[in-house]
Amino acid sequence: MMYRYKTRGTCSVYIDLDIENGIIKDVIFHGGCDGNLQGISKLVKGMNAKEAAEKLEGIDCNGKGTSCPDQLSNAIRLVSAQIQAEEEAAKAGGAGCTGCCSSCGSSCGSPEA
Hints:
By secondary structure, the protein is α+β, with helices and mostly antiparallel strands. Helix content is about 40%, strand content about 20%.
């Protein structure tokens, strides 16, 4: 399942991310430096999500305090946490739970992808 992460402080605007069983299946950046981001996407495809997030965390672009790789690290962590919450909810009988209030749809503090 593809999750969308809205980036902050970078030229890329969104990252679409698919993680299955802790492995990155696909990454698509929207905006940013196309060639570099295609390269990063191909390099992390098939990697363990936790390891990829650790390697990419903290990379800075021109003193911005973040970068597209750093934002991908954030996305991986948030999506992984969301997947884990969804799996736990399904095991507890809440199949289909998205971490949002069933009445109004607002966030209940779950990671937002």
